Structure formats: structure tokens, C-alpha cells
Known about the structure:
A: 4-stranded antiparallel beta sheet
Amino acid sequence: NAGVTQTPKFRILKIGQSMTLQCTQDMNHNYMYWYRQDPGMGLKLIYYSVGAGITDKGEVPNGYNVSRSTTEDFPLRLELAAPSQTSVYFCASSYSRSYNEQFFGPGTRLTVL
Amino acid sequence: QKEVEQDPGPLSVPEGAIVSLNCTYSNSAFQYFMWYRQYSRKGPELLMYTYSSGNKEDGRFTAQVDKSSKYISLFIRDSQPSDSATYLCAMTGNQFYFGTGTSLTVIP
């Protein structure tokens, strides 16, 4: 049982490039989340999904896109990367939207230069 | 006003000290209260959770919730260098709300 896995661990992008951050969970959780974490700013919710085919915006969705074609996978797409998107990105999953533990992946450290 | 407020620290204590970490919140509808621990360059992991007011103890850790004051605390007794991490409070109503985290260093 691997839990939540994320790839890549690290990435450096040039301004204007695009990339997809991968997230997979093997716990059969319906709910999945993408957060970004900046120093001293805590976790900011980017997008979340309540099941395959259903996604919704979080607190800071601009510049990002998501899709959820399967229960297991929840990729995050960055189009036209900007320096403001330099951050650590965490994917998480949970059995339900609230009242249950969120399980986090190890994170992807992204730098945009 | 933020839903959840947490003192970012950093907090530095000698080994063996008692540590108190705190969060305040504004939404009286919150019912589940959690503490996550995040080691450097790792994802957060659940440390403790409590439901409604009261105390919950797990080894050296005690989580306390005071709903009347909208205040939660995490106490760490006999702190160890391995406790050095960032501690995030979290609480749920219809969705998760995380605090910004308190960075703790326990000095041997």
C-alpha cells in the first residue's frame, strides 16, 4: 500500500513552460486535493475533486488546471509557468470531504526561473 | 478574519521541555480538530485528532480543545530532538481548514 505518490520530486521550469504534476493514490479515496505551500503561508488549496469526472476550484486556482478521469489519478497542469508558481505542491486524498484524515504525498518542489 | 490562526514561531526549546502549540479559530461550526506534523521536505502526516471539546492523550502528546474560547492546543511532554518539525493545526466543518504551521526545534 503506497498511499499517495507524486512525481516528479523536483523540477525547474523556465517562464512560459508547461508541465503536469502527477498524483496517484491506492486507497480508493473519492476525495483528492492539490495544495501549494509557501514559506510561512501554510497550505493553500488549489483544486479538489470529489470523484472521477468531478473537480472544483479551491482558494488559489488561477494558472492551474486539473482533471480526474480515474479514482486513482489527479494530475495538476501548469500552463505558462510564472515565478509566482514557485512553491512546494502537495497532493492529498481522503475518504470524505470533512471529518476524515487527509493523507498527503511527499510533495513536488517546483522552481520557475 | 482568517478561519484559523496559528502562531508561526519559530519555537526553540531544550530537550525535555514541555511544548505548547496553539491555534484559534472563528467558526463555531467546526467539530473535528486535528494536529499534523510535517518534517522538513516531507508531506504533513496526522498526529492526533479530537472531536469537540476536551482532552485526548497519546503518549507524550495531549490535544486539547476549548470550543467556548475557540482555542485548541497541542502539548508535548519530555520533548525530544525527533519532535523537531512544523506542526499544523487543522479543523473541519464542511471542508478542511489548516493553520499556517508552527516550526519547532528541540535542542539536544
